[in-house]
Write a structure and sequence with these properties.
heterodimer, A: about 350 residues, mainly alpha, ABC transporter involved in vitamin B12 uptake, BtuC, B: about 260 residues, alpha/beta, Rossmann fold, 6-stranded mixed beta sheet, 4-stranded antiparallel beta sheet, about 40% helix, globular
Chain lengths: ~350, ~260
């Protein structure tokens, strides 16, 4: 009896979940189409940024929030993705004049592909590197993991600076064709969110959450925790590489400075603010942080406050922004969403009793 | 014999937690591992589950040595456990906790789950139905969608056993299942374990301090003291054994 009732309840819940998800996707698609036609260039650029950071935040959240492995490496994977895409997209012509520090290796000149291949290659190379890295990285847990992955991020940046034959050193790569537009960034953001959600709502996602909650208990349930962590790490690296590629094709010029620790730090703020472990939270966090810091630009300019004229105060917006962050974290300890997802909010809060 | 412990010794630095202990557990038996604190009971559990590698000796499960196997591999061979202090996955629902036990039994790949292949949907349906059956057996199916940590202590203990049974074990290791329970809850748990042994075809190896519980439940007990076996046999005889009494209450004869 009970079994049947719960069974029906589950069926109904699944139905509702599906409708919510589908309407979110359709809504986003419509918004991308609308924004592309009606918004000015500046707004579209911010939306592009937000879409790319949604990809990065959602995938970073998979390893940091869902699997609970406090890692600090996304800047490294994003850098790899950005450089791979840049090298594959810049025309040989543009390459021939921009290597100022050292002559490029011959193979650098011949690298060429279309945008799709470049993006996929960026993702796969990052994922492959993550796979290799996972063997040393997941020998340690907790704080030690953070230090090891932090080191990796630094290594990538330093490698980029010190190999001008490939990366043009600290001058960076310029004249990357601007392939990224709202359809690419927004479309891939939807793909990333769907893929991550499908992983989270499968046995792999359950294993990842189990690792986060209690790794030893997960092992005692027959979960191969190394595999769960590696899958999360590689998936996250894949989308970080892909996002890096999109970023390179949006900014049209990249340099090692772009991928320093602050990049990771920004992503960390986003996922902690949104709620570690919640994909919905990661998206909300991105919109709040990326959109909010743009929206608050008016604070830097001269203002008229209750009849009192203030002078321009560059950096004022970051002060206010930091205060807002502190207040959000004070009043929502677990971030805006906690570990909940959008679909959880629509569920009845009724407690199951007999 | 389903489980054989052959001359197992475990040293931590200079301390021997277990000294050349041997015993075997017969199929469908409820076997009690008792002894005062620090006797090496939980160490023995950790050796069986592969969390510790024995310093010497061998653990044989169904005529197959477990030495050198990773803990998650040993679970897949058919040995499940519960923990002394309940360790449920705190952020997950009761149902998801039990579903973790089916992790290695669900036959679909990573890509199949991303693309939502029919096999994924079929397998998820199958393991969810099985999980609900197990929860229903423990009278917990009404709580399936509640968070595991919101349940009472006794209910959490049941969920933990249900979760262990989800791995489809032949041998179930229970580390102090009655700890922190009141007498009526303890009795109910005892009946439940007895019933589950028949319905799930289980052999049970348990650590327990509550002698009444052990008496009621176990077919055979092994008493450990400072890593050494001091008694093996029927639980009723253990309570009368002078060496066992000495181990628990202190030795009066050597004063």
């Amino acid at each position: 009896m009970i079994l049947k009732r719960v069974g029906f309840k589950m069926q109904a819940m699944k139905h509702k979940d599906f409708i919510i998800k589908l309407s979110m996707i359709l809504g986003t698609v419509w918004f991308i189409w609308f924004a592309n036609g009606h918004f000015d260039e500046y707004t579209v650029r911010i939306l592009n940024n937000i879409a790319i950071f949604v990809i990065l935040a959602v995938s970073y959240n998979l390893i940091n929030g869902v699997t609970g492995q406090f890692s600090l490496e996304p800047n490294g994977f994003v850098a790899i993705g950005a450089y791979v895409t840049a090298l594959l997209l810049i025309s040989p012509d543009a390459k021939s004049y921009q290597y100022a520090i050292a002559d490029p290796y011959p193979f650098v000149m011949t690298l060429q592909s279309n945008f799709v291949v470049a993006l996929l290659l960026s993702g796969f190379l990052a994922a492959l590197l993550a796979l290799v890295l996972s063997f040393p990285v997941f020998r340690v847990r907790g704080d030690y993991l953070a230090i090891v992955t932090l080191g990796f991020g630094f290594i990538i940046k330093i490698l980029a600076i010190n190999h001008p034959e490939v990366t043009n050193g600290s001058l960076g790569l310029n004249d990357i064709p601007e392939f990224s537009n709202l359809y690419w960034t927004g479309g891939l953001a939807i793909v990333a969110v769907v893929v991550v959600l499908n992983i989270v709502n499968s046995k792999f996602g359950r294993a990842m959450k189990a690792v986060r909650d209690d790794e030893d208990a997960a092992i005692a349930m027959g979960v191969n925790t190394f595999k769960a962590k590696t899958l999360a790490f590689c998936t996250s690296a894949f989308f970080e590489g892909l996002g890096g590629g999109l970023l390179a094709a949006l900014l049209t010029s990249i340099s090692p400075d772009l991928f320093d620790f602050f990049f990771t730090f920004q992503l960390l703020i986003i996922i902690v603010l949104g709620g570690l472990g919640s994909t919905t939270g990661a998206i909300i966090g991105t919109v709040l942080v990326m959109g909010g810091s743009e929206w608050m630009r008016f604070l830097d300019e001269p203002m008229n406050l209750f009849g009192y004229e203030t002078t321009a105060m560059p950096g004022m917006r970051m002060v206010v922004f930091s205060l807002v962050l502190i207040f959000i974290m004070l009043f929502a300890r677990e971030g805006v969403m906690g570990k909940r997802e959008l679909t959880d909010l629509f569920k009845s809060r009724k407690k199951g009793g007999k | 014999m389903i489980l054989k412990i052959n001359n197992v010794t475990k040293n931590f630095g200079g301390v021997s937690a277990i000294k050349e202990t041997s015993f075997s557990v017969a199929p469908k038996e409820i076997f009690g591992l008792i002894g005062p604190n620090g006797a090496g009971k939980t160490t023995m559990f950790n050796i069986i589950t592969g969390n510790y590698e024995p310093s010497s000796g061998e653990v044989v499960f169904r005529n197959e040595t477990l030495n050198g196997l990773k803990p998650h591999r040993i679970v897949r061979k058919g040995i499940a456990r519960t923990f002394q202090n309940i360790r449920l996955f705190s952020s997950m629902s009761v149902l998801d906790n039990v579903l973790i036990g089916f992790d290695f039994q669900a036959r679909y790949g990573f890509m199949e789950s991303i693309l939502r292949f029919p096999r994924f949907i079929g397998e998820e349906k199958r393991i969810k139905a099985r999980s609900m059956e197990i929860l229903d057996y423990f009278g917990m199916s009404a709580y399936a969608h509640d968070k595991a940590v919101d349940l009472s202590y006794g209910q959490q203990r049941k969920v933990e056993i249900a979760r262990a049974l989800a791995t489809n074990p032949e041998l179930l290791l229970l580390d102090e299942p009655a700890a922190g329970m009141n007498p009526s809850e303890t009795e109910e748990l005892g009946e439940l374990i007895k019933k589950a042994r028949v319905d799930f075809d289980l052999t049970v190896l348990l650590i327990e301090h509550d002698m009444k519980f052990v008496n009621q439940l176990c077919d055979k007990v092994l008493v450990l003291d400072y890593g050494k076996t001091i008694f093996e046999g029927k639980p009723a005889d253990a309570i009368c054994d002078p060496e066992v009494i000495a181990a628990y209450l202190g030795d009066f004869h050597n004063d």
